[in-house]
Inverse folding.
């Protein structure tokens, strides 16, 4: 879990169903993470995928404008296009403002 600032901040929740095979996905995923980390306002990312190809990726951003700039990034737009053509059977994108958060770390429940 990334270390996040006190709210408010924003999140993009990307749920997807992958197609069969890698087809360049792994390499592009690494490139996109590297580029996202360089974007102003990027706070972190979490991602999981099960054996059936269903995945959830959550990226965290300081502002809505920061997210819009990332979506408009030329290299990210190429990845988005390839995602529609090669990598995803289905996906949904949800954008939310985080107004509150709390957590439990191991051994804190005592």
């Amino acid at each position: 879990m990334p270390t996040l600032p006190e709210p408010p901040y924003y999140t993009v929740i990307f749920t997807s169903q992958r197609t069969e095979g890698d087809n360049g996905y792994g390499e592009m995923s690494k490139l996109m993470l590297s580029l996202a980390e360089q974007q102003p306002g990027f706070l972190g990312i979490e991602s999981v995928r099960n054996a059936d190809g269903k995945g959830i990726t959550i990226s965290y951003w300081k502002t809505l404008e920061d997210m819009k700039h990332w979506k408009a990034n030329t290299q990210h737009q190429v990845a988005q296009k390839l995602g529609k053509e090669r990598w995803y059977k289905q996906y949904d994108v949800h954008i939310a403002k985080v107004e509150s958060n709390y957590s439990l770390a191991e051994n804190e429940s005592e």
